[in-house]
Specification:
- The chain is an alpha/beta fold.
- It has 3 domains: 110 residues, Rossmann fold, CATH 3.40.50; 34 residues; 50 residues, no CATH class.
- Helix content is 40%, strand content 16%.
- It contains 7 helices and 7 strands.
- The strands form 2 sheets. The protein has a 5-stranded parallel sheet with strand order 3-2-1-4-5, with helices on both faces. The chain has a two-stranded antiparallel ribbon with strand order 6-7.
- Strand 6 and strand 7 form a beta hairpin.
- Helix 6 runs antiparallel to helix 7.
- The longest helix has 18 residues.
- The protein is elongated.
- The chain starts with 13 loop residues before the first strand and ends in a 6-residue tail after the last helix.
Length: 203
């Protein structure tokens, strides 16, 4: 059965990565832009992983007590049986867990990510073919305009004005603002913004 693509707020959430190698490094790099508090525990940790800003590193083997207070866990040691043990302990405690290269042990999967500003697009094949997920991700990424992150930031800044000035049919106004941004770029001229807010046809 396919996995449902929940989008979860990780800002400030406590996450543990068990493992300190290249897999752990890749997972950490993908997670950090979303603002979690990451702890990495492993007897040996790559210097690149230790150097990541905002990552706490513990040079020690995984211990069950490290799960205390965790919102999610990544089992990324170089021993599949250890990853399964970590995953089983997490599931007993109701902690979201991802076990590297072991779909059956996972409570969630890492998607192939397309990210630009506030835009996040996740592509998953349910673990059936990571190569297919990357193939699809590359084609999706090619369709995203280069300035889409700035466009979303600009539209987010307009939302309070829309709420204040447009009492009804806001969905149509937001849609017209988005279309205008795609056509003209951002920022929009003020007269164009006001004509849309008044539900007039912009010149």
């Amino acid at each position: 059965m396919a996995y449902f693509p929940f989008f979860v707020d990780l800002a400030g959430k406590s996450g543990l990565i068990a493992g300190g190698g290249t897999v752990a490094l890749g997972k950490a790099r993908r997670l950090l832009p979303y603002g979690p508090r990451l702890t990495v525990a492993a007897p040996e940790i790559l210097p690149e992983l230790e150097a990541l800003p905002g990552v706490e590193t513990l040079k020690m083997p995984f211990r069950p007590e490290l799960l205390e207070g965790r919102f999610f866990v990544i089992a990324a040691t170089d021993a599949p049986e250890e990853n399964r043990r970590v995953a089983a302990l997490c599931k007993e405690r109701g902690i979201l867990v991802n076990a590297a290269d072991d779909r059956e042990a996972c409570a969630f999967l890492f998607p192939a990510l397309v990210r630009q500003g506030e835009l996040s697009i996740g592509v998953s094949t349910g673990g059936a073919s990571p190569s297919a997920a990357v193939w699809m991700k590359e084609r999706v990424a090619a369709q995203v305009p280069e300035n889409f992150g700035a466009l979303l930031e600009y539209l987010a800044g307009l939302r309070p004005r829309v709420r204040a000035l447009v009492p009804a049919r806001r969905g149509a106004v937001f849609s017209r603002l988005f279309d205008a941004c795609l056509e003209r770029g951002v920022p929009l001229p003020e007269d164009v913004v006001m004509s849309i807010l008044r539900e007039e046809e912009p010149e």
